[in-house]
Amino acid sequence: MRVEDLSKSFGGVLAVDGVSFELPSGQLLGIIGPNGSGKTTLVNLITGFIKPDRGRVIYSGKDITGWPPYKIVTLGIARTFQMVKPFYQLPAYKNLIIPLCSPRVKAMAGGKYGERDAVALDLLEEVGFERDSYVSYKVASSLPQGYLKRLELAKAIALRPDLIILDELFSGLSLAEVASIVPIIEKLRFQGKTMIMIEHRLKELFRIADRVMVLNYGQKIAEGSAKEVMESEEVKNAYLGSEE
Amino acid sequence: MEKRKERIDRGIKARSEDIFALSSYREMLYLLVPRAIPVVGLLFLAPFLSPYWREIFISTSVYALLAISWDLLISAGLVSLGQSLFYGIGSYVAGSLNHYYSLPPILTIPIATVAGGIICTIVLLPVLRLRGIYFAMVTLVVPLMFSRLVEATRILGGTEGLTGLTPFPSPWVSLYVIEIAVLVTLFGFRRLMGSDWGLIVKGINDNDRSVMSAGLNIHWYKAQVVFLGASVGCFAGAFGTHLDMFAGMPGFALDYSIMPIAAAVVGGAGSFAGPLLGAFILVPLSEILRSLGALRIVFYGMFLVIFVVGLPEGIFRFLQRKYHQFERWVEVS
């Protein structure tokens, strides 16, 4: 995937300002930056939820700039939301039926009404729902945050994506919960998925990311390995405030 | 010998709502009885009614269809304040086919159902991306626009409407046509909402962005919902037109918009059976209150307020809950 000079402003605010990067397949790119630095907007631009003012998004040779979200998913890009967006009225496993009904999954796996339930339960187990526990059958509105985050991840995996964009998956989770999700992400990487992770938990991110990109005020201020990025003066200024 | 109380549905429901584990005729009966009530009620009650009440029964069923159609739209998060659009379009399509081309009801009603559904979907297509109150406002305005269009341009009979349309061969035909339509719609929609398609529709109501990021085109699904809802409404309109032997501007009247909503709210939205029950309470009630003259609306309004305040979940949900709570004595070994 390649992103070229992507820009978007809301009113007078430049939320994302000329961001370019390249992501070879199979790599994990971490995106960090202070609050309001345009990380989530960048994700929304890539996944088609917002149309960019300028710039291009190219994925596996296709210019997907401005495509509607459902078409972008069909190409194999799945995302999670920072604020979890489960279907609150439905039981946890039924939440996964909806992505399993997408044209992409139908084309890849087939599967009829009813069979999908079994696939959904397998997926929940994959993200750490205990097999044969009652949790998978509970209505999503009654699940605790940790399970909702896992459900959010499962909804993305259900689409059998090649590229997964995780928007602050770890936020709001306890250390133990984060520690239990990290192996799931490592397993996905092992399966050869390309990933973008937006994170505030730098310690966990630096352990699993191949490269890290830093955004501030919508601009890319640094990119490289975790070590390189943390040594950059600009990053220190952005996070800790400059001397002036 | 010791005994204790146990809920009848104990053992019937396994873990989730739509999986049943039945092991005896009694348990089958437990599930069958509530489903048999509308079938028996709609098909076999009417012969015992006087001709006057039979007519009320038929017009109630027309409102019930509009209410069920409203309920389908609301399950996708589309609040319709303009069910009369569907009624009016269905009525005019059937009426003009009969008036100008002399087609019999057996053709005009199916054509009006499908063509009317398509027309209504096309009319509402540009506003499908709107949600909640914004969609509601548009649906309120569109039927008014259509009725003024007919008035101003004097097409389709203008303010006079199209009169002298072919009636049904006998009152019994009209009765069974509408009752079977109500039953098919009721059970068909319930079945549909229980399928994966229904799950997606519920998902759109719950969280449309999540459905978008699941790789589904929500506008396509919303259009399907509107088409189904509109078709049912247009069927009601086409049926009503042949029943009254008249198609005209009253088809777009506010009655056809308000009554279905009131029925759905009183009966309990989201179940299709609720709006049906609501219609069969409200329409006959309004008829009974007719003798009160001008005070009719006052009492009617009071009834509505009492229902809504007393049973905000709707009568159907209340009855359903009570039914599931039935207990029986069982021996403790």
Which secondary structure elements does this structure contain, and how are they paired or packed?
The complex is a heterodimer of chains A (244) and B (333).
Chain A: E1 2-10, E2 13-22, E3 28-32, H1 39-46, E4 54-59, E5 62-63, H2 69-74, E6 77-79, H3 92-95, H4 97-100, H5 103-109, H6 115-126, H7 145-157, E7 163-167, H8 175-190, E8 194-198, H9 202-208, E9 211-216, E10 219-224, H10 226-231, H11 233-240
Chain B: E1 2-7, H1 25-44, H2 51-75, H3 83-101, H4 105-124, H5 132-153, E2 162-163, H6 171-194, H7 196-206, H8 208-212, H9 218-244, E3 246-247, H10 255-267, H11 273-288, H12 296-310, H13 315-324, E4 327-332
Antiparallel strand pairs in B: 1-4, 2-3
Helix pairs in contact in B: 1-6, 2-6, 2-9, 2-10, 2-11, 3-4, 3-5, 3-9, 3-10, 4-9, 10-11
CATH superfamily annotation of the largest domain in chain A: P-loop containing nucleotide triphosphate hydrolases
Q: Main beta sheet of chain B, described?
A: 2 strands, antiparallel
CATH level-two architecture of the largest domain in chain A: 3-Layer(aba) Sandwich
Q: What series of H and E elements makes up the topology of chain B?
A: EHHHHHEHHHHEHHHHE
In the CATH scheme, what's the topology name of the largest domain in chain A? Answer: Rossmann fold
Give the CA-CA distance, first to last residue of chain A: 38 Å
By helix and strand content of chain B, what is the structural category?
mainly alpha
Tell me the Rg of chain A in angstroms. 18 Å
Question: How far is the first residue's CA from the last residue's CA of chain B?
Answer: 8 Å
Strand order of the largest sheet of chain B: 1-4
Number of strands of chain A: 10
Assembly state (oligomeric): heterodimer
Q: What is the largest interface, and how many residues per chain?
A: A-B, 33 and 21 residues
Mean pLDDT of chain A: 87
